[in-house]
Design goal:
- This protein is mostly helical.
- 52% of the residues lie in helices and 0% in strands.
- The longest helix is centred in the first third of the chain and has 34 residues.
- The protein is globular.
């Protein structure tokens, strides 16, 4: 009798713990989807890196302060990135940092130090900025990035260009 009662209590405790974990996981998933739109690309197993298909519905995180980087090129790129945050939010990053770092768009590369050490991120950000200045939409820019047009960006040309005024 005691053994049956013990087994019953153990089963109830294990089942209750499983329900609690599942409930908590479901709740945390709901809150994260409220903070930002889901990436359009499903992630690591997709041929297209993660990005957001539409404009952000809430404020975006800040990019890092360009002044914290020692080289002028990286400072310029972070300053450009800060100017086109909503555009970068809607772009994939072909260095595949969605797989390695968990980024959900190109914007994430400039919210941390990753963009300072990756030429793919730098070229895509400069391409996005240039295309924005030409009047292209984020969707048109994304199509260009997916077609590999960012590979034609010559980062050395930034070294001769005057510094971008302001980080915003």
């Amino acid at each position: 009798m005691k053994r049956t009662a013990f087994i019953f209590v153990a089963v109830v405790l294990v089942a209750g713990a499983g329900f609690g974990i599942g409930f908590a996981h479901g709740q945390s998933g709901a809150s994260s989807s409220q903070l930002a739109a889901q990436p359009a690309a499903p992630g690591p197993d997709s041929d297209v890196p993660a990005y957001h298909a539409s404009a952000p519905t809430r404020g975006l995180p800040e990019t890092l302060d360009p002044k914290q980087f020692p080289d002028a090129r990286t400072q310029k790129i972070y300053a450009l990135a800060a100017k086109v945050k909503p555009v970068l939010y809607q772009q994939p990053c072909y260095c595949r940092c969605d797989r390695e770092v968990g980024h959900t768009s190109l914007l994430d590369c400039f919210g941390d130090n990753h963009g300072s050490i990756c030429d793919v991120c730098k070229k895509e950000a400069v391409y996005s900025y240039q295309q924005t200045k030409l009047g292209k939409t984020p969707a048109e820019i994304r199509a260009g990035i997916m077609a590999g047009k960012w590979k034609q960006v010559d980062l050395a040309k930034l070294d001769a260009a005057p510094a971008a005024s302001g980080a915003k």
